[in-house]
Specification:
Neuraminidase, 5-stranded antiparallel β-sheet, about 400 residues
Length: about 400
């Protein structure tokens, strides 16, 4: 079966799912706001995208001059994600159902949010999995989480903060998605440069996508969803979503961490492989909607299902085999912090081995290099408002990339 590779570098202002906000279609039964607060309005808090940046690095720094420094002296319980709100605070998820705040290097003794009463973390891939703060979080207090709840189903919900805490009773559920198996839940949430909320969903679990969800447009599993959370409650469907529903892209196995480059708006996806290949997918800002990343016809750049059909697929820009070390990719972030030699380098890792790679885009070419060996169990990367990069480990620690 021949593979057709799609070139993703298109003009910035082309018709795209990553361009400024467009009209949306309210979800049936949704309550439309009388004066929707568009994420493109001027009251949105500044982001690193609006801050001048040094030129992108063209070569990798000597990684021996840098280290991942432990941020806390106390340990968290199985942290799964990290985000920042622009105030210097870091918000860290714990798998069992807590959100904790780190401020000035100290872990707040009280949970920011406690939803342990509704989070189901019975299996290794279940629990409180993803967090995205609204672009206007400092004004409206809205934040969104992805968790597995009753029956192991996926819940994507909005909560509202009041200072250093949020109440569980403020939950507004956007989506409840049935999960046929207790793995491959995905869980990533991120706001794009268009102000829409993007959600990464796995194919539903087991091995080899037995239900064919990755390639089915009748299922929300194995997809990246795109929701307008400002024009209606609980959400509206952006009018340029390619299939007239929540689906924005498909053909994914278990997208364990998606992120947007805070300067360019490009999207990076870490998609966990079946048994041999882990992959990083890339969507340049300005690319068309409705991309198909190939699972389960392909695992990485390699044939997986011999019954797959010919078509247009978007293949990974980087991959590594399990023979090279590791078992499960953890997608990361593009560095935009205080060390210019790292500027523009996408950092990602592997859960099992603790290896961390860098990825540089130079025109249409990509450079990949193994950079660090860490203690391992990397569950997620995170980025603060200054563009610095962190990772959280399943052993309870939080680390930041720094000079030695």
């Amino acid at each position: 079966m021949r593979r057709l590779i799609i070139l993703l570098v298109l003009p910035l202002l082309a018709c795209s799912g990553l361009t400024p906000t467009r009209p949306s279609t309210a979800v049936p039964g949704a309550e439309t706001q009388s004066e929707p607060a568009s994420p493109t309005q001027t009251d949105v808090q500044p982001t690193p995208t609006q801050i001048p940046s040094a030129p992108n690095a063209s070569v990798f720094p000597d990684s021996s001059a840098y280290t991942w420094q432990q941020v806390l002296t106390t340990s968290l319980q199985r942290p799964t994600d990290l985000s920042a709100d622009g105030s210097g605070r870091l918000f860290v998820l714990e798998k069992r159902g807590y959100i904790r705040i780190i401020e000035n290097g100290e872990l707040s003794p009280d949970a920011f949010l406690d939803i342990t009463d509704r989070v189901n973390d019975d299996s290794n891939e279940m629990g409180l999995l993803g967090l995205a703060l609204h672009p206007n979080f400092s004004q409206n207090g809205y934040f969104f989480v992805n968790y597995t709840g009753a029956g192991g189903d996926t819940f994507i919900s909005r909560f509202q903060a009041d200072g250093n805490s949020a109440t569980a009773s403020s939950e507004l559920n956007l989506l409840k998605i049935a999960q046929p198996f207790p793995n491959h839940n995905g869980g990533s949430l991120a706001f794009g440069p268009d102000g829409y909320l993007y959600a990464g969903l796995g194919d539903g679990g087991a091995a080899g996508d037995p239900l064919g969800n990755g390639q089915s447009l009748d299922s929300l599993l194995g997809k990246i969803l795109r929701l307008d959370v400002d024009s209606a409650e609980p959400y509206a469907i952006p009018s340029d979503n390619p299939f007239g529903n929540e689906i924005w892209a498909y053909g994914l196995r278990n997208p364990w961490r998606i992120s947007f480059d805070s300067l360019t708006g490009d999207l990076y996806i870490g998609d966990v492989g079946q048994g041999e290949w882990e992959e990083i997918n890339y969507v340049a800002v300005g690319s068309r909607n409705g991309l198909n990343f190939g699972w389960d016809y392909y695992e990485g750049n390699h044939d997986y299902d011999p019954q797959g059909v010919a078509g247009e697929y978007t293949f990974p820009v980087a991959e590594y085999s399990h023979e090279e070390g590791g078992c499960s990719v953890t997608g990361g972030y593009v560095y935009r912090g205080s060390m210019p030699e790292w500027n523009g380098i996408y950092l990602y890792g592997d859960y099992c081995s603790g290896l961390v790679w860098g990825l540089i885009k130079s025109g249409d070419q990509w450079q990949v290099q193994l950079l660090f060996e860490t203690p391992g169990l990397i569950t997620s990367f995170g980025q603060d408002e200054n563009g610095e990069i962190y990772f959280v480990s399943d052993n309870g620690n939080v680390y930041q990339l720094v000079r030695k």
